[in-house]
Amino acid sequence: MPAYVIADIEVTDPVAYEEYKRLAGPTPAQFGGRYIVRGGAVEVVEGDWQPRRVVVLEFPDLASAKAWYESSEYSRARAIRQRSARSNLIFVEGLPSS
Known about the structure:
The protein is an alpha+beta fold. The chain has helices at about 15-25, 60-70, 70-85, and strands at about 5-10, 35-40, 55-60, 85-95.
């Protein structure tokens, strides 16, 4: 079943974050992943969550999502993101294809 990486990111160093985006951008595809949402407009309709920059990636399965996150291809970018932003990130399994 598909799996998703969902991140809420507050960029604290925009210059460094641009380097993160450049390095991270192509890496999900190497693990069968693709961007579903990448920093579009957000409108809160219920609750008090105030997300900053929302990113959603879709992978074929949870193992692929975890392999991407822990990969050498993504590790350099991840380190830059961790220095240039505050992030909340989760893995979540989707529904099986019908």
